[in-house]
Amino acid sequence: MRAVAVARVPLPLGMAVRPGDPALYVVSKAGKVFALRGGRVDRVPALDLSGQVSRGDEQGLLGLAFSPSGAFAYVNYTDRRGNTNVVEYAWRNGTAVLSSRRVVLFVRQPFPNHNGGDLVFGPDGDLYIGLGDGGSDYSRGDPQGDPDRNGQNLGVLLAKMLRIEPRLPDGSLPPGGAPYAIPPDNPFVDRSGVKPEIWAYGLRNPWRYSFDGATGDLWIGDVGAGAREEVDLQPAGSDSGRNYGWNAMEGTVEWRSPPPDAVPPVYEYDHHGGGCAVTGGYVYRGNAIPALKGWYVFGDFCTGTVSALRLVPGGRRVYVISAADIEGLSSFGQDQRGELYAMSLGGVVYKLVS
Question: What integer best gives the mean pLDDT of the chain?
């Protein structure tokens, strides 16, 4: 497996595909969405929010997802005050309809880091939103340790994976003027004092997650603190409401008494080899690299190493291979055929090839 440069985009941080549309839509951290068509980047952005986003290291335009119908696009960005905004736009003729802007979710961020920012529509048609723990101002004890204790607090949205319905299945808006509906089978719908949007919790900073197109399994790359980077897995059909342990656990490292329901990662690695921040990716389901089929491809921002992981069925062993190195590895993308791409904050979009 190697990486071949296919396009240049300023600060690429994500990629999304739209049903029925051959373009690849690349997210720029600086606030723009560019369409990549036939190997060429459109000169005019499909969406330009550059005047609305904050520019900190972990801020900006952080995520993009298209509705299953392709009629709407959803973006996740930090505004100029640093707060999280999930906004809907109608999408026509390859561009966003700016007049259709609708705020779906607003979350106040206490600090500028650990914003998460990914958006993914699941096989169920619902929108999954990953939020970090809110970060720290680096003045309250351990700067990496979730000083507001959001990880295990089910009364807040931070440090969670959310699951919502921004529109009903027929495309209409939720009743009563609500910005979104809560799926009735969300795990905490009927619990007093708990946010009903929560699908999973105990996440420090979920930086890229994806559903396996063949199995429906949810793979999460969760950025660690000073000791461990972790990959979490929620198999399709398993119980929702999973607790991935933060901030009692960093991977399998105990910070305090671990909660009894904490789910350990399926893979973790320490920082001794230079790694510092996992970049979640995809299970490969394309055809260009036959030997990679069924492997989960992910990476690390600091080393730039692209790796692939395979779980042994019925066992606990994990096989990992490492291949291409990409400086400033910020994200992965998947095209309509299941082929994989990787992005560098240096401004290059790569395609992974055999």
Answer: 94
CB 134 within 8 A of CB 114: yes
Burial class (CB in 10 A: 0-12, 13-18, 19+), 150: buried
Tell me, what's the pLDDT at 316?
62
- Alpha-carbon dihedral angle through residues 144, 150, 151, 155, given to the nearest 10 degrees: 180
DSSP 8-class letter at 181: B
Strand partners, 34: 26
Collapsed DSSP state (helix, strand, coil) of residue 71: coil
CB distance 291 to 265 below 8 Å: no
pLDDT attached to residue 277 = 96
In angstroms, rounded to a whole number, what is the distance separating the alpha carbons of residues 164 and 120? 11
Asked if 230 contacts 278 with a C-beta cutoff of 8 angstroms, the reply is: yes
Give the pairing of strands 198-201 and 242-243.
Answer: parallel
Q: What is the distance between the alpha carbons of residues 128 and 117, in angstroms, rounded to a whole number?
A: 10
Contact in structure between 166 and 88 (CB atoms under 8 Å): yes
- DSSP summary character for residue 17: E
What would the pLDDT profile of 147-158 be if each residue is shown by its tens digit? 899 999 999 999
Distance of CA 167 to the CA centre of its chain: 20
If one counts every other C-beta atom within 10 angstroms of the C-beta of residue 12, the result is: 29
The candidate with the shortest Cα–Cα distance to 261, out of 243, 276, 275, is: 243
Cβ neighbour number for residue 17 with a 10 Å cutoff:
18
Q: Give the percent of the chain with pLDDT over 90.
A: 90
CB 8 within 8 A of CB 343: no
Strand 267-269 to 47-48 pairing: unpaired
Q: How many Å apart are CA 59 and CA 81, to the nearest integer?
A: 10
Structure tokens at 148: 């507001």
* Token reading at 63: 């995520």
CATH of 8-277, one of 2.60.120.1440, 2.60.120.200, 2.120.10.30, 3.40.50.150: 2.120.10.30
Q: What is the pTM of this model?
A: 0.96
Phi, psi of 103 (to 5 degrees): -75, 120
CA 271 to mean position of chain CA atoms: 22
Q: How confident is the model at residue 312 (pLDDT cuts 50, 70, 90)?
A: confident
The mean per-residue pLDDT over the stretch 255-280 comes to 94
